[in-house]
Structures are given as C-alpha cells and as structure tokens.
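User: Predict the complex.
Assistant: Input components as received:
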Amino acid sequence: MRYIARVEVSLKPGHSDPEGETTKNSLAELNYPVRDVRVSKVYTILLEASSVRDAERMVEEMCRRLLANPVKDDYKIRIEAAE
Amino acid sequence: MKSLYLRRNVPFELYEVNILDADDEELLRISEELGLSLNLQEMKKIKEYFEKNGRNPTDIELQTLGQTWSEHCFHKTFKGTIKTSEGEVINSLFKTYIAKAAEELKKPWCISIFEDNAGIIHFEDDIAVAVKVETHNHPSAIEPFGGAATGTGGVIRDVLGVWAEPIACTDVLGFGPLDYDYNKLPPGIKHPKYIYRMVVAGIGHYGNNMGIPTVNGAIYFDESYVGNVVVYCGCIGILPVKKYIKNAKPGHRIVLAGGRTGRDGIHGVTFASLELTEESEEESRPAVQIANPIEEEKLARAIIKIRDLELASSITDLGGGGLSSAVGETAHKFGCGARVELGKVPLKHPHIAPWEIYISESQERMLITVPEENLDKVMEIFKSEEVEATDIGELTDDGRLRITYHGYLVADLEIGFLFSPPLPQRFAEWRQPRYEEPRFKEPRDLDEVLLKILASPNVASKESVIRTYDHEVKGNTVVKPLCGRYGGPSDAAVLKPLNDSWRGLVISCGMNPKYGKIDPYWMAASAIDEALRNNVAVGGRRVALLDNFVWGTPEKPDRLGSLVRACKACYRFSKGFGTPFISGKDSLYNESPLGPVTPTLLITAVGVIPDIRKTVTMDLKNPGNLIYLLGKTYPELGGSEYYGLMGFIGRSVPKVRLEDAKNTMNQLTKAIDSGCVESCHDLSEGGLGVAAAEMAFSGDVGVEIWLDKVAGSSSLKRNDYVLFSESNSRFLVEVSKRNRERFEEIMEGSTYSLIGRTVKEKNFVVYGLDGEEIVNLGLKEMMHAWKRTLGG
Amino acid sequence: MKKEDVKICIIRVGGTNCDRETKRSLEDLGVKAEVQHLNRLVRKGSLQEFDGLVIPGGFSFGDYVRAGAILAKSLTARLRGELKLFIDEGKPILGICNGFQVLVEAGLLPSFNGISDYPEAALATNIPIGYRCMWVYLRHENFGRCIFTRRIPQGNVLKIPVAHAEGRFIFPRGEANKLLERLLENDQLVFRYCLEDGSPAEGRFPENPNGSFYDIAGICDPSGTIFGLMPHPERAFYGWQLPDWTRMRRLPRFADGRIIFSSMIEYITRKF
C-alpha cells in the first residue's frame, strides 16, 4: 500500500523562534495586529507500507532519526492512504 | 480566415507557423503571440529567409531566432547604427567607443577581451584572471530573491564558461528609498524595503552556499529605482593560461551537464528586452528561474577537474536563451554546424514542448564539447560529483543547426543566418537638462550637516548587508569590505589568490547615477575615475575596467542620446587613463509605470598589487601623523550628497582632468610602494568632510583639518563648499612626520596640500577658511550617525 | 610517528566548500591532507588509512532539513563501524562550522555516554537571526582534555572569524544547567565567546554572535579527541588574514587559528 505522510516539524514551546519573531515584526510594520508567529516545516512523504500502523512506525522513526532534532523540535504526523 | 499555426502530425506538440502567407500585421501578431519580441524588420527578414527555402518555419525555429536576435543576446543597440541630432552617424557604439580604447591601447596583459563569456587578463606567471559583471534587474523586480540569486549563479557560470575557477563575487545594488510611501506604489511594483531585503538575501544565499566570498560592492538609493531595481552581480575567477582551451571541431560531442531542464525561465531574455508593465508580475512568472547553488557547486568541481585534465574542447554556460544560445554560439564561434537531439535532454517534468526545452533558462547548466575519445572520462567525472550529464549531439561541418526530437527533425537553420539579424538604425538626441546652480546661505551648524550626510542612505554604513555575505571563505581575503577598528568602508577588496605568491588582486567599483541626471558624459568619466581611485587607494595598478550600462528604452531618442554621451566618455577616459575595457554588458528597457531608470553606469576595476604586504587601508592609524589632500578641489557640487540634502541637484557636475588625475594616481602609487603611506582614502560622496570623518572613526584616531590649506579652496570661498565638493581624483593620505620629506619628494609635480594632522583626542575638528572652528564632533557620535541608518 | 607520515582526511560532499583552505592549513604544517568525497571513502572503505579526520565548513547537502543533519546521518549510516573503530583508536576528529553541526547532529558531540543515536544538543538559528560573517574573540576554557587546544593556556583569548546562520548552541530546555555542569565536569567545554579582554560575552551581541547558551563556541567529547567549533581556524591561519593587520607595526606570520591544527598534528605524532 501507498501512504501519504504529512510531517510538521516545529520548535518546541518555549524555544525562541527568531524566524517567527522577525516575520511578526515585519507584519506589524505593515500594520497588522499580529501577536505571534511560529514557523514550522512541512514534509509530504509518499511511502510504501503494509498498513497505516506500519507507515506510522516508519515515519515516527524518520522523525527521530532525521527530520527533527529532539533537543528543540516537536513533530506531528498525519497519515492517509494514497490514491 | 487563413490559419497562422498548423499543428504538425507528430506524436508531440509541434507547430508550423504560416509566415509565408502572413502580411505585416500578422507577422507582428505572430511575434507577439509567440512572445518573440521581434520587430517587423526582423520578422520580414525571417519571412524572406523561409521564402527562399520554400517552407514555413516551426515554432522552435522561430523561438530560436527570437532568442538569438534578442537585445539581451545580440546587443542590437550597441551594434546597430545611430544617428544623432548633431548629424553624427555612429556605426556600432560598441566598436566605436567601448572596444576601441582597448584596441588602441594594445595592452600585452589582455588575453581575451569582449569575445568570450568573461574578460581574461594576465595575473602572474602562467595564471590569468577572468572577470565578468552582469545585470539581473528584470528578474529581481519580479521575484527579488530568486532574481538576485540566479543573477549571482549566472555570472559565476560565465566565469566557469572560460574555464576559470571562481574566487570572488561582487554585487552593486540600486533600490528605491526604503521609506517610500506604500500608498504611492503602483500595482505590481513591490516596496523597496521588501526588494532590498530579498535581493540581499538572494545574493548571500548563492555566494555563501557555493563558498565564494562576496568581497566588494555598493548600494545606491534613487527614486527611479523604485520601479526599476538595479542588480549587478560580478564574479572573478583564476585559470592557468594554457588551460584556456577553445578548439572545438566537427565530430566533437555536445554534452549538457548540471541541473535538469524545466519550464522555469522561459523567455527570460525577451522579457529582459521589454519594459516592465503592471501585468509583468503575472505574465513573467515563468521567466523567473529557481536557484540551486549546491548543484552549481558540484558542477563547478566537475568542470575544474575536466579543465585540469584537458578533456574538453570548449565550454560555455547556459544563461539567457538557454540551449538555443549555448549551442548556436558554440557552433558559430568554431565555424561548425550542430546536431542536437532534444529527446535526450533530462527534464524536470514530462510534457515540455521541444521549443520550451530548447529555450528554457533553467539554472545550473553548462555545455561542453568533448572529443569522442574523452567522452567516457568526462562522464565519469560528472558522475563522481553527482552531476547529471548527457551527450545531446555533436558539432558538424555543414554550418547548419539541425534539431531533432525523438528522431523527428524539428529545426533546420543555417548558423550564418542565425547570427545575422538586421541591425537597427536609431536616432539619438541629448539635451542638457536645465538644472540651475542653487543659491542658499551657508548653514550655521556644519556639525549637523556633516552628521546628516554621514547618515544619508548612500553614504551610511552598509555593514548590515555586508556581514550577511561570507567575505572570508576560501581564506584569501586580505582587505575585507570592512576595515579598521570599527568596520570602516574599504575602498577596494584585495585578494591573495595564489598560495605561493604575494601578488594580490585588487577589486573596486565606481558609480555615480546622480551625476547622470546632469550629464551622463561626466557621470561616466566620474565613475571611471572613482573606480580607479578606489583601486589606487589600496595600492592597485595595471587596471582593467568593466562597463555595465543600465538604461531606458533605446528606441526613445533621449535615452539613446544620453547613452551615446556616456559611451563617448568611456572611450576618452579608458584610453586616457590607459585602462582598457575587457568586458561589459548592457541592460536596456529599464522602464516602469513610474518612469525610466536614472541612467546608471557601473564601472568595475580590477588591478593588481605586486606584494599584498604593501596594501594600505583607509582607517587612520596613529595620532601625531600628517594628513595630506591630494588633487585640487573645485566648486563642483552638482549632483552631490550635500546639494541633495539641501533639496537641489545643481549644475556644476564634477569633471575629470585627465593629466592631473593620472599624475596624482601615479605619484600616489609610488608613495604607497615606498611604504610611507599609513592610510589612504578616496574622496567621493560627501567629499572631504565624509572621507576624513570615515578615516577618523574607522581608525578611532582624532583629526584636525584646516580648510584654508586645501588646494583650490580660495576659489570656493565657502566652508561648506570646500568640505562637501565632490571634485574627482582626490585622496586623503596619512603620513608619519618622519616620512614627510620623502613623501613630499615623491609627490613633487602633482597637486597636494598638507591640510591637517591626527591627534590623541577622539575628536574631529575642522577649521574654516577664516581659521575659525566650524566642525567639532566626537568620533563615536559620527560613527553612530553613520551606522544607524541601515543598522550595524 | 613522523610528521611527514601523518595523513589527514578532509571529508566532503556536495555543498562542502571550506575543504581547500583547510587542506592548505594542514599541508602548511607539513602533513599530508587529502580531500575525499564521502562516496569515495565509502566505496574504498579507506577511512582507516588516515590518522585524523576533518569535517570542514560549508553547506553539506544544502543544509536541507537542518544544518549538518543529512551529512550526519549519511556518515553514521554509511560508515558506522569504521567510524567507531576510528574513534576507539583515539584518532582525532575535527568539525569546523558545518562540521561542528554535523558532529552534534550525528551524536558524536557532546556524546556524554558514547555515540548517541539522537542529537543531545542543537545548533539552532542565530539570535539575532541571519547569516553573519565577522571576527569574534574566544576564551580558551579547557583544562587539558581537548587535544586540539592543549598548547593554548587556559584563559587565553583567540581571535577567529565566524560565518554562519545556525550556530546557537543549545541543550534541551529544562536540562540545560544540568548538562552544562556535566560538560564542565568532564572538561568538555573548549571555547566561549568573549570580549577582547577575555571577560565573558554573557549572551551580549555582537560579542556572542549567535545567542549561544553560556557563550559556547566549541566543545569536545569526553575523550577530548572529537572537537567541534563554529569559528573557522583555517581563516585565521596566516597573519595577512587578520582583519586589522594593516594596523600592526609588523605583519605577523601566523594568526590564532593555526595552533588548533598544529595541536591536532602534535597529538597524532606523539600517540601513533
């Protein structure tokens, strides 16, 4: 089976997000009442797996091994069957 | 109704264009519908050609002609005929002015000028230096990050395109005022602040990622740049002279290497030869290229390996016009024909029509020709660097360009015809703008005036930009863009490119768009003088120049008139200074709904210094030294920062007095070589006041100056004029007391004046023409004014 | 072993770009230095032929995902056994800038309990944000564990440039102080950003150019043979590379970065 995994990697709460902070300031300059901006990175992964659970297990591992640095990053995984 | 486009019965998209039956109006319609940007004269010549051949062209043939004949690729304006309002007939601006000086100067150290992707000059022993500067204005206006990044990527490939290894980049940028009113922006034009941030980020992204230091540059702000951002990207490379190989022959394979080909960057060159309109943003999206510096880094490694092993017979980059330019120019240059199978070109995505493949400007691609017996080795090298390379055809001996797509012949043109577009005849008329010399009272508080000029965006520190560029990578940057104790503005960058030699390369630039508003002739002269001044100030000599014109639409006589004037100055002063032009590029059609660009000429100067240990920087070194002003000061404030601050342009544009200028520069070089120059800074925007202030706070050394000692000051009569006149060919020099006699002996015969001294107190004090104190500022206060505007 | 027999491997992949000047620095000190593409090193299985390894600066694999992350995984996945052997034999590994990011991402630094499967620290986005190329002062904090700085007296100040956008050294939140203590206990702290006089930067910009925790600029592993730092010693090797050499009475022959390479070589010649 083919699955599409959508992985969102973002900074853990409490970690400074200089990119978000800079974007916030820039939007404020344009006169938007922006309170906070957080930036995250999204990976869309097409993969082969025997089941949703199997896919989840693999993507979880990908996150721990490469996509996220546990010191600063959180990640969210969403998996659906591909067409 | 007759049909203009007939789909050919082949298993892919290919149209025959019925130009044989087309009348003038329809010819123009075809040009417009296919995005060819060809005019009627050109379309008629194409029709004539195909009439002779008794058939209609295919879409890919027309597109190939459109690309090859574009202003961007063929430089029709510089090659065509110009009649001026004064009755002159100029047969090629390029030959008459730009190239002529170099031809007449016959410098033995010029190896290849104006004939290849970059100019090549001798450096030391068997090592040469290649230099190229490009503009990337149109793409940067539409997508500033990608436009600036690919501008850098493109000029790096130009240098690789003469077998040179890139060692440094330069960037000179022009933006609208950063505080421009958002409400005044026409639709489709981005705010200068956004463009500024993204352009700077784009340039840094490419150079930093590739590991090429960005060592020299400048930033100018001008209202006319709001609609016409100016992005100049330069690159310098080195190569062993004997590895500059160009001996392609029929039978050699044509190898395309690097990134894959996609729909990005279709019609980039024809787009660059058009004015920007409100719709440009949407229409031009496909013209924007995507940058991948890592791909180019790998490509560069492979190219240099192939060079060192002498496995290929020629090289060129894929830039404007994509494959169509690269294949056509290679065949043309070596008197060959070419056969190309487009089906072999690796694509980013399927379903791209053959004409799109042939003219796509996808980035990070190079074309080399390889003798059959070396092909395997070449492919092996590309593979080892993880670079995709494909044999797409061969050079032939029949003088024809034959393109097939999966075996079907889709184009068959004579190379000779491809490179003989009809050249335009244009009319040029220049009228001196009627600016008056302003009359206003001398301000009482010159402290405040000086601080304001230091803080004005054109003068203010560019540190916040410079630090985002890696200017140290490769470890050969001897004089960095910022120098002294507190990040002073270096006049030029000095590189030490060879491990076993002390010889240095000196890179500087000059640009004075404000003077161009008064007279483009003196603007060009001043830009040359400034570029040379900057080079000489650190110890550079034996200078080669590059010209880069950014102008408006040449079909408009006034735009062309001012271009002609600038070119005339280029000839006179290049010849006069003995500094040949070795390469250049023009970007025309810089017009937006807000109007034309202020005519802008960038002069890049590349000199050498025999021993980098003799290099001089601009920061004052020690208290107790003498300050000399070299050159004479004239009442020349037209287009100056000072007049600008007061709300005027003025008329008295700075001139260049060749003999005096040469004298000063030659003597200064001798003084630097003798070791008696502690620091040296050229006088440019803001004149004596700004130059002296910059030297003082950069070195954290106080200074006292007497204006009545300034040569020429008696004719200026006003303190503010003496302090802020922008007369050319002037330098400030710091000399220790014990070297006084030696220095003055060397300077004998040129105009110089002892105008001040360095002091222990950290203050900047100026005494006026009557001996009264007219400026007294703390060094820190001046430095903060200078650093605050754009951020430190 | 004799100096001229010492052979150092400078590893590179697409995007590595400080390999040439790093090689020049090592060769200037009289050893052999070879720039090796990772693919070649893997194919030939030749890591053990070398006496030391340098991961130079650049943007390995475009710094996609995170700076250094892909090369880190690539190294540990493709050279796992060989790398372990190399380290166990006490052969030194130096990571400069991107190389430091790689070592941290690979779990080779700080490596409190041997090579870690997951990063124990991070080199996060600079605060203030942005790529920055500038000279900084570094205070040497190591008491002798780090073999790359043994010749530098503790407390000495070095001047070396940085050029990066992701150099803010951090530990996991909540554990930072505990891990710092451990780092100090093990004598793993090597360089801290400081003022010209050696007093700590205390997080102040621009002396601390990236907002690093505890002004950390470089650390080593518990054995002292693996060392990573954000500043570029190869750009501070010769006197003429200094930003202010024109202010000096006499041009010095060398600059402060040289001692890091010479210490590495001295260690090798003594040990092997």
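The CA atoms of residues 57 and 215 of chain B lie 48 Å apart.
Let me know if you want any component modeled separately.
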